[in-house]
Amino acid sequence: MIAGLPQADKSLFHKPDLFTLFTLIIGYRQHLRVVGTSMERTLKEGDLVIYKKLNPKNIGLEIGDIVVASHPNRKNKLIIKRIHRIYQNKFDLRGDNTFSSTDSRELGLIELDLIIGKVDKIFPK
């Protein structure tokens, strides 16, 4: 264990179930495959991540949540990071792997409108 790094939230790890498959089909949830090592200890390259689309009326984001956001400088690229701090409608997003993460330390605070979803299930590779 490395001091200071968050531990994997075991409640996010699930086996596929019918409800998850149904919400994927109707579009309430989206999925993506993890690329890179910036969230290691929680997410590994090749893991499948299921995320709920963000509801602007009921944001419900908290410090420690893992979110999917559009990269602020490359709109076609998505990033997966953990919420480190919240400043009104701006978020300090950081990778769990401090030594291999491009995050708010380089990108600055991420605006709420760039956050597209909250990770709620992880299917390990």
From TrEMBL:
Keywords (A to Z) from UniProt: Hydrolase, Membrane, Protease
UniProt keyword Hydrolase present: yes
One of the protein's GO biological processes: signal peptide processing
Domain of life, per lineage: Bacteria
One Pfam assignment: Peptidase_S26
Coiled-coil boundaries: none
One term under GO cellular component: membrane
InterPro entries: LexA/Signal_pep-like_sf, Mito_IMP1_subunit, Pept_S26A_Sod_Ni_maturase, Peptidase_S26
Protein name: Nickel-type superoxide dismutase maturation protease
Lineage: Bacteria, Bacillati, Cyanobacteriota, Cyanophyceae, Synechococcales
